[in-house]
């Protein structure tokens, strides 16, 4: 396979725009088109297709994009090592902001201390994390996931329940566990309507015929907890959240727990640093529970 075609395809696949990709490569748009066409003919499969006014990669294009990124990383790492004599290897981990803050608090410092490779973190929602791993942008992802993907290897990481957080002076704080019916008439701090957590809250409370009001609409666990501390309402959050002083957390068993998965690309890079990060992540996957036993 022509390495020049592969490098050009990688730039194109990141932009999905021939004009911008050609500018980055400092070649003409027709010249880039010829390279992508030749690569497609060599593979024997179309690598991209039109979707309305935009372009999108085919399944084969996505696989080739990740392969090309692996090849580019290995080449760049080797050249830097030969020139400088130092390890410039980089490992990328993709996860949600809350996952980095609360689930991976132990793992990241351990990897930093133990490995000579640099760790690059990318944050995003579930679809972004999956996209990062599929494209080869990230080597490992941690995200809530209940279904499998044919191009990914997913391994159960940890399961996280739901809690209700409220001021310690709130009447419900005296109960050890909460039933969903206790939320009747309460004001809740919730994410915007298009967010998965809000959709879950709406569905479960509607199914239980619970009437409730929106106290504050805000995105992010930290802000939800902040407004709860100000007494503006109750917040239903993942149990991995660190509850600030002055607030009480109570389990909400009738809300489903969330299964987090560690995902990596099938047939992806198996460099030692990636395996090392994976081992560290798994060895500390339940550490967040130990930090919350005092709750």
Automatic annotation (TrEMBL):
Domain HTH lysR-type residue range list: 1-58
Gene3D superfamilies per the UniProt record, alphabetical: 3.40.190.290, Winged helix-like DNA-binding domain superfamily/Winged helix DNA-binding domain
Keyword set, alphabetical order: DNA-binding, Transcription, Transcription regulation
Pfam family, one: LysR_substrate
Any one GO molecular-function label of the UniProt entry: DNA-binding transcription factor activity
Cross-referenced InterPro entries: LysR_HTH_N, LysR_subst-bd, WH-like_DNA-bd_sf, WH_DNA-bd_sf
Entry keyword Transcription: yes
Family from the record: Belongs to the LysR transcriptional regulatory family.
Record's protein name: LysR family transcriptional regulator
Organism: Oleiphilus messinensis
Lineage per the UniProt record: Bacteria, Pseudomonadati, Pseudomonadota, Gammaproteobacteria, Oceanospirillales
